[in-house]
């Protein structure tokens, strides 16, 4: 009678790795889909903005003059909103009118980093929605986005007058978060530098 018990014990031993895998997969899925991805912390907050110079978007003009590319020196002395965007990014189309409206605030400068985009498409995008950016740097190979710690477009940063990153928003600017979150962080940066 002891022989039938042996195969039963072996079947449990065979099932243990499978049960372990299912438990681990469940934990990974739970962690993957829990939480708000816009609350991903940035290691760059409190650190100087990356010293990455970017060329201008050729052919993008404002009042007859070429819109300049990104020179890291522009962050000193001004509160800046840096938006990483692309014409192929669907949420970027949704946030564009909000950034255009934000660009009317003369207390700050709006800087665009055009990420891995075709120049013609980027110019058409800005022509369609209006250009909120006083500066547009082209990140054709994605190197600048890596230095800024970008997870994916769109992302928006607030840089204080000292040239230090004070806030990072992962994901698009929306009607729900522009006043409650982004403008609140801009106001903090404006007050801190005065």
Verbal overview:
There is one protein chain. With 194 residues, the protein is of the alpha/beta class. It has five helices and seven strands, in the order αβββαβαβαββα. The strands form two sheets. Strands 5-4-3-6-7 form a five-stranded mixed sheet. A hairpin with a 2-residue loop joins strand 1 (61-62) and strand 2. The longest helix has 28 residues, at 5-32. The chain is elongated, with a radius of gyration of 24 Å.
CA radius of gyration: 24 Å
Average predicted local confidence, pLDDT: 89
| Assembly category | single chain
Q: Please provide the ordered H/E string of secondary-structure elements.
A: HEEEHEHEHEEH
Q: In percent terms, what proportion of residues is strand? A: 15-25%
Q: Unreliable stretches, pLDDT < 50, 5 or more residues? A: none
- The amount of helix comes to 25-40%
Number of strands: 7
For the terminal residues, how far apart are their CA atoms? 87 Å
Profile the largest sheet.
5 strands, mixed
Question: What would you call the shape?
Answer: elongated
Read across the widest sheet, the strand sequence of neighbours is 5-4-3-6-7
In short:
The chain has helices at 5-32, 90-102, 119-129, 143-148, 178-192, and strands at residues 61-62, 65-66, 79-85, 108-115, 135-139, 155-159, 165-170. With 194 residues, the protein is of the alpha/beta class.
């Amino acid at each position: 009678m002891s022989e039938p018990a042996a195969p039963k014990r072996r079947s449990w031993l065979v099932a243990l790795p499978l049960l372990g895998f299912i438990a681990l997969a469940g934990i990974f899925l739970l962690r993957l889909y829990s939480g708000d991805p816009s609350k991903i912390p940035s290691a760059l907050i409190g650190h100087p903005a990356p010293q990455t110079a970017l060329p201008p978007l050729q052919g993008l003009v404002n009042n007859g003059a070429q819109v300049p590319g990104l020179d890291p020196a522009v962050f000193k002395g001004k509160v800046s909103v840096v938006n990483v965007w692309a014409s192929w990014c669907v949420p970027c189309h949704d946030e564009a009118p909000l950034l255009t409206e934000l660009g009317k605030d003369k207390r700050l400068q709006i800087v665009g980093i055009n990420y891995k985009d075709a120049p013609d498409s980027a110019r058409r995008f800005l022509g369609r929605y209006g250009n909120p950016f006083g500066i547009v740097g082209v990140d054709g190979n994605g190197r600048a986005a890596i230095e800024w710690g970008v997870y994916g477009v769109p992302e928006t940063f607030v840089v204080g007058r000292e040239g230090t990153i004070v806030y990072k928003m992962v994901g698009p600017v929306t009607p729900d978060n522009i006043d409650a979150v982004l403008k609140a962080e801009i106001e903090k940066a404006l007050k801190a530098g005065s």
